[in-house]
Amino acid sequence: MRVSVKKTNQYPWFIRPFFWNQKRKYGAVLQPGLVWARVPKLFATVASLYGVLDRKKSPLDPVLRSLVTVRVSQINWCLFCVDINSSTLAKRAGSLEKAAQVGQWRESVIFSAQERVVLEYTEAMTFSDQQVTDELMERLKGFFDDDGVVELTGLIAFQNLSSKFNSALDVPAQGFCKLPFNPSGGN
Predict the structure, then answer these.
(1) Any idea which architecture 62-168 has in CATH?
(2) Which of helix, strand or coil describes residue 73?
(3) CB 182 within 8 A of CB 13
(4) Which residue in 11, 53, 58, 178 has the fewest CB atoms around it within 10 Å?
């Protein structure tokens, strides 16, 4: 990594419960958390935003949320994010099939019409040479009301923030998912 992390007991007391929860949920403290927590108020803000976007009562299906996070992570070359988000997608989808094919979603037959339009929207928001068109937004609104569109847009924007942060600081994968990483499009 391009910045160092501290021992967990060197972080402020109000950050340590987040680390405990990560260790309980993932079996390890997440490296990005240790990096973000170097600025404790920033870490708490980012963790709170993530909690809102990944809540159980989100209007976005958990598999759909994971598809978005994997695709953004691939585009932004975030090894850590592809690793953990592919693992989460595999758990939510019940197999590795979607995680293995998300980079080639256009050629794959396993993605629904809703998943396809969401992945297209994800790419339009993430690739710098693309943009969101009115036509794409109309197709998206065929599946989501305005609140759902706002939440989806927030999730994509958050994952761009997170994966670009981790990629820039060269945060490594932690071995959650054993799919090979192909940054040009697929896992």
Answers:
(1) Up-down Bundle (1.20)
(2) helix
(3) no
(4) 178
